[in-house]
Amino acid sequence: MLERLVSGLKRTAVKSPSKWAELYRELPTGRWSFKHYPWLRDMHDSTAQYNVGQKSAQMGFTETLLNLTFYGIDIRGFDCLYLLPNKNPDASDFSSGRFGPALALSTHLQNLFTDTDNVGHKRAGAANLYVRGSQSRSGLKGLPINYLMLDEVAEFVEANIPLAFARTDGQLEKLIWLISTPTYEGNGIGIYWEKSDKRHFFFKCPGCSRRIELKFPDSMVMCGEDEHDPDVNKSHLQCYECKVKLPHETKHLWLGDNLWVPETPGRDIAGFTISQLYSHTVTPQQLVKFYYESLHNVAFEVEFFNSKLGVPHIVKGHRVNDDDLDWCILHGRKNRKSDQPDQYRGQLITMGVDVGPRKIHYEIAKWDINMSHFQGDVNSCSTPMIITHGTVEHFEELDYLMQQYGVVSCIIDGNPERRKAAEFAKRFYGRVRLCFFGSNITGKTYVDSKIEYNGDPVIRVDRTTWLDQALGRFINRTISLPTDTDIEYRTQVKEPVKSYKKDGDGNPVATYITSNGRDDHYAFSRCYNEMALMFVGALGTNQDI
What we know:
By secondary structure, this protein is an alpha/beta fold. The chain has 17 helices and 24 strands. Helices cover about 30% and strands about 20% of the residues.
């Protein structure tokens, strides 16, 4: 009875999540401590209803959300929703890798939770913890909650995030957290970071007593010529004001006098960002070695900025920009979209069509081919001039474009309107093909799938390779754009960003990503138009290429 009484008094004395963590959270290394993670204390005790963490990897942000969830259930008696990118494997991994060990190490948590068998629902008396994936809208409905935790937002279905926010609408007291490593500006966690007060972690320099932060490369003394140079082990942190060395071994001491400083103060959303320069488990030497590797490996470059520094990053040449588009207009053929189609009759004309949920986007191009440079790849010795681009609402309107411009080859998106696209292809037999992106296809090769698709003229290609070819035209400046190219076209061809994801074996694989909810239809009509050139020679026309 005395033990229960002392426990109850101790519990009622807990006034903050940070204090709760220090009293009740157990780790394999012992009781929870902020000694090596001092930046987490103020994050635990943030009074803002909306909070954003744009983080580098392994900096304690997920553990912070877990502590806040436990605090909300234990002390406040609130229902909590912990949201992950997918139900499987993310939710199951969370239960086995995070939730399970937390309970196993803490007697207090074991006594708190009365039902833990269900992966997606844990009960602690009258309070509930729901674990869901962002992919399922149905899994987010009908859950009135006070605490909402969104982990790894970069991998979320962005359209479902507002639905998750709505789960807290009926509560006077609420807490919402979004955390993730960034990808590139304007995407994922960056959308919410830009709306926050953007807090940076400052501390008092032990040498000059000025308030500074650790930032790359100003705070880093990089030694050696590459990652294999033994001198790289002499690399260390420094104060960028007084140049005094900041020893990694005593980092917990000189980070002790600290505070979060907002870059844009006065905003309702609290934003927190931290890099691995602050980590006590990652040394400056390891960071410098990784940086040197990133100089000759683009996958490492993306990983360095996103996961090591916690900042958005785009590799040069991995996204079309305004300078590329301006050059292709200023140094182009000076044609206009409104020019009469008749002047292009008898020339080599192709069309690419992307089918969206509301409109059908098309791009029509005239090609100049230098056969003296032909080495088995017609695209490499060809230069496109974009004649026009635009949108239609009905497939039948594409027929008029085919006839009006004399299109000799067209590739159309096979999804989502497979039947309508197939009907269009049959009306122009031999000149139109449906395209699907497939796996196990390399390079610019394609798989003809007529048998598989009931006789429809279908090809399957590698998505990344053809986006490289199509969007690379702007970056390499081997394409001509009309002088009246509209803003919508420019915006959409700039959307796809080449990035890297790890496959099942942990190897980086190049892929193009686009912010969820943002249109990229012209980027893909450009891609389909690039493919259309491959089939010109097989048309049996009198066209001389």
